[in-house]
Amino acid sequence: MTREQIIQGVMDAGALPTLSSVASKLIEITGREETTIYQISSLVAQDVSLSAKLLKVVNSAFYSFPNEVRTIQQAVAILGTNAVRSLVLSFSFLDAEHARRQTGFDYQRFWEQSLATAVAARMLVEEVETDVDPEEVFTVCLLENIGVLILAKAFPEQYDAVLRKCETDAEELFVLEERELGADHSFVGCHAARHWQFPETLVQPILYHHDPSSYQGGNREMEKVVVVAYLAGLVANILYSGHPLEYADRFRREAKKRLGLKSGVVDQVFENVNREVSRAADYFGLKIAGTPSVPEILQRANIELATLNMSYEQVNRELVEAKLELERLNAELEEKNRYLEQIANLDGLTGIFNHRYFQESLNREMNRAVRTGRGLSLIMIDLDKFKNINDFYGHQAGDFVLKEACRIWGEQLRDYDLLARYGGEEFIVILPETDVDEALVVAEKLRQTTAGHEFDNGGERYSVTASFGVAAYDPVDVNAGRNLLIEQADTALYAAKEGGRNRVERYVAKKAGWLKRLKG
Questions:
Q1: Which end of the chain is flanked by fewer CB atoms within 10 Å, N or C?
Q2: DSSP letters along 42-102, please?
Q3: Are the C-beta atoms of 472 and 436 separated by less than 8 Å?
Q4: Within 10 Å of residue 127's Cβ, how many Cβ atoms?
Q5: Environment class of 159 (CB within 10 Å of its CB; exposed 0-12, middle 13-18, buried 19+)
Q6: Residue 419: enclosing H or E segment and its boundaries?
Q7: CB-hemisphere CA count at 13 Å for 292?
């Protein structure tokens, strides 16, 4: 069959999984720049079951937030749009009705392996110096093999034969699919993702995950996501394929070559991935049987191959060599930990503080404000029409604008103020011991600085403006809290965007008129 016939057969068989109405609508509205946190939270809140699951995951060790998140609006404000979209898509697919096992295809095993791929990807992103969004990578890797499920449902007999041949011949699955069916599961999965109107940040890794060298898009961040998706698939194959030694050896080589992962990091991933998969399964409501760790799987495989037949002297030599290697790995780990302590709090692209460090710092500053009786203020910033820069000039231009904006803002702030990347093109500033009137002056200075700055990127010049939302924390108010303060700043920012952009707005409670315009 041709690729066109494959797709037509998939559509005729009704083999595409159906997205929930909330997931479909969420994909649509998150593609719009003007979409607000309130709109997203209102949409998710329409599904009571989904809301409960979302809050369960947000309050689990999957994120380990210090304070309980009680409402969907709080969850959206803290996690950000991409993370909420990723979680909703994950639930939508993991909750999909699983077909009965009428053929050789094991649907339960498929979703277990998909979850293992997603968890392994999240672990890898945490070990790599990158600004790749771990939530988006989790979704990409959960769905990178969705084409397998679609082909199994559309062509059950033919695909069972492909799977049997893959196990006996140890040939790559996508090679067999192309030869026996006419299209591989990456192509089918990519077509399905576009049918669901997924953004290209999800579509491209699905298409290239089995062969990252074939991606020639030129986007470094996308290239990194494709590589992580490829490596995470290798880890899942160690757990679930019949050839664990082959995939483990390939993962070690490819992880070192493509991400520069050292053997100690690889061993840590191998040791912990099965436990993290079990935890994630519980968070997402997927029942799976416990799986042994990768070292246990590899040890069993070696025993089965009867490759270990050493004398007593050989064992002693191996133990000495292993001890020396362990000492070397410990030294490498200590060096890596020192380095991680330096960069763990920074955003990989802009060099300013990251979202996690902002949350921790805001807790500390609010506690200090309570002790001293001196309040603090927040400024939430959003670059106006930033998507247009990426669309018209490319992501490298967008990256330049983000870094340059952070540089000029930092020059306007005090040494003890904190500027952090909240997510995407959104930023946030903590102003300790600063009341709302003083914060408004700072925000206006930042607004004028942005609008008046010439963003010169090697001869290409961009005009950039930003919108600012200001909220103040009163340490005497017993009802005030971190999440409420962030929501107030975000609400003020939304008013600035709605009021025409390139402006500053302050948050005022409803009884005072909700929001009061400062200036345009």
A1: C
A2: HHHHT-HHHHHHHHHHHTSTTT--SS---SHHHHHHHH-HHHHHHHHHHHHHHTSPPPP--
A3: yes
A4: 17
A5: buried
A6: strand 418-423
A7: 10
Q: Which helix (H) or strand (E) element contains residue 254? A: helix 244-259
* Whole-angstrom Cα Rg for the chain: 25
Of the chain, the percentage scoring pLDDT greater than 70 comes to: 92
CA–CA distances in Å: residue 487 to residues 54, 255, 378, 412, 493: 18, 40, 10, 25, 10
d(CA 233, CA 207): 13
For residues 418 and 415, give the distance between their C-alpha atoms in angstroms, rounded to a whole number. 8
Q: How far, in Å, are 69, 283, 433, 439 from residue 483 at the CA level?
A: 8, 23, 19, 19
**pLDDT under 70: residue ranges of the chain:** 96-104, 129, 169-171, 290, 305-317, 339, 341-342, 510-520
- How many whole angstroms separate alpha carbon 1 and alpha carbon 364? 62
Please give the Cα distance from 364 to 489 (Å, whole number). Answer: 18
| CB atoms near residue 34 (< 10 Å) | 9
Q: Report which secondary-structure segment, H or E, holds 382.
A: strand 376-383
Terminal CA-to-CA distance of the chain, rounded, Å?
61
Quick one: 83 exposed, middle or buried, by C-beta within 10 A (0-12, 13-18, 19+)?
A: buried
The helix-helix angle for 482-498 and 72-79 (nearest 10°) equals: 80
- Amino acid sitting at position 225: V
Q: How far apart are CA 83 and CA 90, in angstroms?
A: 10
Structure confidence by residue, pLDDT tens digits, 264-280: 888 988 898 888 888 88
The answer for residues whose C-beta is within 8 angstroms of residue 7's C-beta and 6 or more apart is: 183, 188, 191
Beta bridge partners of 380: 428, 469
**Residue 506 three-state SS:** strand
pLDDT of residue 455: 94
Task: Tell me the pLDDT tens digit for each residue of 396-437.
Answer: 999 999 999 999 999 999 999 999 999 999 999 999 999 999
Residue spans of beta strands (DSSP E) within 424-495: 426-432, 455-457, 460-462, 466-473
Whether the CB-CB separation of 193 and 202 falls below 8 Å is answered with yes
- Which is nearest to 182 in space by CA: 21, 426, 8? 8
Reading the block at residue 158, the tokens are 């033919």
Q: In this structure, how many other beta carbons lie within 10 angstroms of the beta carbon of residue 242?
A: 11
Residue 515: strand pairing partners: 507
Q: Residue for token digits 């025993």?
A: 303
On the CB side of 259, CA atoms within 13 Å amount to 31
Per DSSP, 241 falls in state: S
Structure tokens at 311: 């004398």
Strand order in the sheet with 418-423: 418-423, 426-432, 376-383, 466-473, 504-507, 515-519
* pLDDT of amino acid 308: 45
Q: What is the pTM of this model?
A: 0.56
